[in-house]
Amino acid sequence: MEHDLYDLAILGCGPAGLSAAINATIRNKKVVVIGSEVCSPPMHKAQKIDNYLGLPDISGSELLDKFMQHAGQRGIEIINNKATSINEWEGLFNILVGEEIIASRTIVIATGVPYRPTLPREEHFLGKGLGYCATCDGPIYKGKDVIIIGHSTEAEGEANFMAEICKQVYYLPLYKAIENLDPSIIILNGKPAGIVGEEFVLGLQLKDGSTIDTEGLFILGGETAPDRLIPGLEIKNNHIAVNRQQETNLPGIYAAGDCTGGPYQVAKSVGEGQVAGLNASKYASRHRG
Ligand SMILES: Cc1cc2nc3c(=O)[nH]c(=O)nc-3n(C[C@H](O)[C@H](O)[C@H](O)COP(=O)(O)OP(=O)(O)OC[C@H]3O[C@@H](n4cnc5c(N)ncnc54)[C@H](O)[C@@H]3O)c2cc1C
Fold this sequence. Notes:
Blueprint: E1 5-11, H1 15-26, E2 31-35, H2 41-45, H3 60-73, E3 77-80, E4 83-89, E5 92-97, E6 100-109, H4 122-125, E7 130-131, H5 134-137, E8 145-150, H6 154-165, E9 168-173, E10 186-187, E11 192-196, E12 203-206, E13 211-213, E14 216-220, H7 226-229, E15 235-236, E16 239-240, E17 253-255, H8 266-286
Parallel strand pairs: 1-2, 1-6, 2-3, 6-17, 7-14, 8-9, 8-14, 9-10
Antiparallel strand pairs: 4-5, 5-6, 11-12, 12-13, 15-16
Bound molecules: flavin-adenine dinucleotide.
């Protein structure tokens, strides 16, 4: 599917992302929001939110419904998927979403609480046998053995793609029901404990002490740390570093909500989303070709 060039691409459809989107559309900007089907998993879990001004005694899912209705009234386009990588090319950002590329003048990151690694020492092995995007790095492992740790059924499509090009794919699901996995893939049972290797990934160790040799390890279908989506993004104390304009260290990229730090609250996310949306709109206006 062909997409036009957007002024703002917003990653995350929780309160921060929707607030950025609503404010940018009020500024007449062309906006796309990318996020999960349940737009804010934490709000959805909150039985009662009692500290959102003007709407006391409301459940998280009711408040989220109101936010979604507001976004719907403004005709905001929401794509239910995940961004898996972002590249900048001549002042425009190209975002990989599933198999589509979305181009935008600016980005607002509103992806919620920071990424928690699945395994110890992930940082050390990134690019040395460990990857988070099979579509991006898969060809490096053509004809080799790889292990894929899948956090959700989302990872199965990427595992099936790897099965077409790799010698052998092993799949370790961290969820209950596998839906659609290529029959050539060997399913591993157990819990992952650590990565075997000094400089490069040589294998995966399981909690029962056994190890499986591999040349490549992918962790898919879970959260993606923002600095892995966007190389060079500054992180401070596990959060995206921003100033009071919600600008990150990278021109044209803004961040808002839980991903920038505590307090992890709806009102703070909505406020930061507004500032990010307005400033990204100004940036997009200044950079129209
Ligand atoms: C049990 C519970 C109770 C709570 N109670 C309260 C309360 O009483 N009051 C209060 O103010 N707050 C409460 N909170 C906190 C509140 O829900 C969060 O602070 C708020 O949801 C944060 O909003 P956000 O937009 O930053 O992120 P989120 O709401 O987490 O939204 C993040 C979005 O980013 C998407 N995303 C992630 N990665 C990607 C990617 N790579 N590409 C595209 N999209 C991506 C997700 O799918 C999601 O749509 C509670 C939280 C919980 C869990």
